Each structure stands twice: as C-alpha cells, then as structure tokens.
Amino acid sequence: MHVHLLQHSPHQGPARIADWLASMGHSYTVFHLDAGELPPRLADGDALIVLDGPEGNIDDAQCPWLRGERKLILQALNGNKPLLGIGFGARLIAESLGAVVARGTVAETGWHRVVLAPLSPVDLPDTFEAFMWHREVFSLPDYALALGRSEASPLQGFTWDGGRVVGVLCHLEATAASVRALLDHQPAPVGSETSPHAQNRAEMLDDPRRFDRLAPLLDRLLSQWLGSTAAA
C-alpha cells in the first residue's frame, strides 16, 4: 500500500507514523505543502494522511495551498480510500463534513487522559494517556461516531463511514524528538500560559516511557484504519 501524507510545517511531521508504515511494508510520500509542493493526485495513492499544522483562523490568502488541500479532502471523503487526519488535519476533515470548528475554552498541551466513548468502534483501551497540542476543537460531524474525550476537550476524535475516515486531536504518533521540535520552533497554542491543562517543557519530556507507551496505541489505530476498506 502507498500512503500520501500532507505536511503543513517543517516541525510537525509524521514522527512515528513514518516508522510504522515502513515496518509494515507500506511505502509513503510526504508532501510539504507549506514549502510550495502541490497536493498529490488521489488516484496515485492508496490512502491519505493529513498531518497537524497551524492553529487559529487561517484562510486561503495566508496559506495558498489550502484550497487545493480542501478539494483533495473532499475527493477522499467521496471516494473509498482510507483518510486520516491528526490535529489540524482532523479539523479540516471535520469542517469538510459540515462540523463546527472553533477555538476551545482552554489550550490543552502535554500529557492528558483520554476516555474512550461508549460507542467508539476504535480498538483502543477504555482510558489511555496521549500527547496534546491544541486550542482549536470541532463538533461531531453528522453520521460520525465519537472516539473519546479528555477533561479539556469533549471530543478527541471521530470515525466516519465505517472507520474509513478517522480524525483525532491527540497525538499518538508523538516522539521525544517530535515534541522537542514543537517546543523549539512552534509557538504554544493561544492561552497555554494560563490554561490549567497546559504543561511546561519539563513535564512534557520528563518520562521517556510515555512515548514508548504510545507506540502500541498508534499500531492499533493505524492497523484498524487501514484495514477498514478491506473489511468493508
């Protein structure tokens, strides 16, 4: 299987997703939209991953690649290939499905507990710890199933069309290196300095085992997601 990944910042890449794809024998191409690369043709790949990116209100004037990316996401939603969005990518997918995307009450950064929704079809533990880096949130799209929630975010993700489409706010792909890149190069989400759900750098990096515990969760999520079309 060949997977296309859409990247929107040099410091918000695929992280452990790239390792997982390679270990499972899948090939992939990363398209750096922020660097001027054009989005791929949907027909040239077997699945599409839309990675995290900028926070806040953005428009086509600020990000000239956004119009083409939205068209590609709509094509993917109307097709039959697996589509996964993380953070900013999940917000774009939710928006394309008619959901409301807006600034949340507080910023949520660092490590927080996610409680799986009762009807969530995603193969994850009932509760698990995940890495967060966001202020923007979205409502549940029509005909979607909620993935779960955290204390600060009532909706941490969703599945749509039998699991073929998945959007997640939290970052199961995070590694110590990817978090350091965020902290070194990206501004924290608005309101992080006053949010009770925002951690400092030391708290985010103090326990390397946290990143190790994300690996099996990512494996379960990606395996189910890529297997959704074959099982349909």
UniProtKB/TrEMBL annotation:
Domain of life of the organism encoding this protein: Bacteria
Gene3D superfamilies: 3.40.50.880
Organism in which the protein naturally occurs: Halomonas daqiaonensis
PANTHER family (UniProt xref): GLUTAMINE AMIDOTRANSFERASE YLR126C-RELATED (PTHR42695)
Protein keywords: Glutamine amidotransferase, Transferase
SUPFAM superfamilies hit by this protein: Class I glutamine amidotransferase-like
A GO cellular component annotation in the UniProt record: cytosol
Protein name according to UniProt: GMP synthase-Glutamine amidotransferase
Residues of the Glutamine amidotransferase domain: 17-176
GO molecular function terms noted in the UniProt entry: transferase activity
UniProt xrefs under InterPro entries: ChyE-like, Class_I_gatase-like, GATASE
